[in-house]
Amino acid sequence: MASLELFSKKSSPAELAAELKSKCLEHAVKHLGDDFWQFEFGQELAAKANMLADERDWIRQMDNYILFGETENGQKVLDEIIANARLNAEEKETLKQWREQAFPSIFEIKEVEADKIKALDALAEVDYEIYFNDLAKGQEAAKNMPPGSFVQTNILPVNNIWFFSGLQIALPQGSEPAIFQAYVAKATGRLAFRNNPEKLKRALEAQKKHYQVFVDTFGADELIVPTNRAQEKLREYYDNLAVNFSRSGGITAPQLPKDFQEAETIGIVMHAQEGQHEFRDYGKFVKIFEAGDISKKSREFIMDYLEDESTPAFIFKRMKERHPENFHKVMLETTARADKRLYPVDDFDRLMDIFKPGWRETYPAVIPLNQRFEKYYYNLGRNDLCYCGSGKKFKKCHGR
């Protein structure tokens, strides 16, 4: 088989992948051990120390840390390795590829060959050919990955060829319900749209329709309501969504988190590209910028919004556009007094780069589901009426 040449040539992609991962592991263990245990992957492993943690857990979490982790000072682990490990130019360029393109996912096995597996990324719905960088170990692992089963793993590129990385966790055929609940239903951002521009296009089109339904329902793209009415308003919007998208069985509105009950107001805010968000005490957030309030309590409140990773940048942009002078005043006082330094409040993009890293890369909240997983979203049996409103049974319509 021609693809076996990946393993036979000197300095082959497979050899480079294996040797470079070994160097990364050696560097991380020797120089970043304390950082690893402080980061989420190490903390998760430490939490299992008195339970079932074993070598496989360590391999999985260390691979996650190398590819996706950060040092104690906030530097990406791969950038730290590029800067400080003894690597040649080719190895450094390869690590830059890993930094930008490596990712974790759940893959459905389509075909198994001697040196590779053809698989579908179950989250983004993209086909990949994934090679093993160790042929013998790969062939052994492939015995647990028959077509129709699934595997949870990381993959990374070397010279535009994809390789398995870290641990491969095999999941048997028939795991779709569990995979949907644990992964597909929770996938957002890059994980849901990676390398699939067609899916992203469909999602953006659907998101615009959701936005219009929201505006038609409430007359604006944001709503500030007393907390005890927020759930009622969400149901009103989702009922209208169901009508507009011909969902005869309705669409269940999400339940607000319990800690939202402590707030005076809830903001239900819609963005044409980024979708629907709910915010605690959003009324207070808006009033601070309306009034230019720089009292200590207001500064602390805004700082909490700034430092909350789940709060998107677009609500700050709205305040800047509505109240430019007060926005500058509030942000200058809030950031300067927080840690005695000046932030670039005159440059919105740079300011958000500091407090909302990654904010420039936005994705819709509406994520199209393929037919394989739609039935789990709508909790349909084969003989139930199809979610599309056709009046046909699911098995005779979208469930075929």
Automatic annotation (TrEMBL):
| Cross-referenced Pfam families | DUF7986 (PF25948), SEC-C (PF02810)
Q: Which domain of life is it from?
A: Bacteria
Note the InterPro entries from the entry: DUF7986 (IPR058292), SEC_C_motif (IPR004027)
This protein's name: SEC-C domain-containing protein
Q: Species name for this entry?
A: Candidatus Komeilibacteria bacterium RIFCSPLOWO2_02_FULL_48_11
**Where is the organism placed in the taxonomic lineage, from the top?**
Bacteria, Candidatus Komeiliibacteriota
